[in-house]
Amino acid sequence: MDRNICFIIFAIFVAYTARDLFFKSYQPSSQADAIDSVKKEIPSMSFRQQMPTIKILYCYSCGYQRAFDEYRKMIMDQFPDLTVIGSNYNPSFLKSKLAQLISITKMIVIALLVANVNPFAYFGLQTPQFWEWMRQHKLYACMMTFFLSNTLESQLMSSGAFEIFYNDVPIWSKLTTGRIPSANELIDMIDNQHKFFQTETFSGGGSGDHLTSHTITGRTL
C-alpha cells in the first residue's frame, strides 16, 4: 500500500517536472537578451512606422504577475496608442541549469525510493543511515525530497526583477533600484519618453537613439 502511494506521488512529480522542463516557453534571461527579444518581436520598420512598445520583464515566481496586470491596464488607459507586453525574467544561465539539475536529481531520488533500489550497493559503498531511513519511510521521504528541492528551485529561479523598457530602452530596473516604481513614477517616465518619441517622429529627427537619455532608475538626466 505504501509503495502504491509512493508510485502515485512519483507519477505526479514526474508530470509536473516534465511540464516545467519541456513545455516552458523560452524567456529572456538578462537585459541584453530582453532587448534582443523585443527587437525580434517588433517587425523591422522605420521609426516613424513603428508603434511605441512597453515591455515589462518580471519575476513570475515572486508574485509580480498581478503587479504587471495592474500596470498594464493603467498604462493602456493612460496611453491607448502604446503596446504593452510582458514575460518572465529568467535568472542567470548558471542558476537556471542548477535548478534543472536539482529537479532531475529529485526525480532520480524519488524513483530509486519507489523502486526500492539501493544505489550505494551498486558501487560497493556502505549504505548511509539517512538512505536507510528514507527507504523505511518512503512516503515521508518522497514528500520531503519533493518540497525541499522545490524550495531550492524556487529560490534559484526567483530573480526579483521588474524591468521596464520603452522601445528597447531600459527606463526602470528593480534589480538596480531595489523596488517597483510607483504608479505616478511610471506614468511620468512613460509620458516623458512618449513626448520625446512623438517629437522625434513628427520632426523626422532620427531613429530614436536619443531616448537613452533616461536612466534605468527612472530619473531623467
UniProtKB/TrEMBL annotation:
Signal peptide: none annotated. InterPro entries: Selenoprotein_Rdx-typ, Selenoprotein_T, Thioredoxin-like_sf. GO terms for biological process: cell redox homeostasis. It comes from Dermatophagoides pteronyssinus (European house dust mite). GO terms for molecular function: thioredoxin-disulfide reductase (NADPH) activity. This is Uncharacterized protein. NCBIfam families: CXXU_selWTH. One of its GO terms (cellular component) is endoplasmic reticulum membrane.
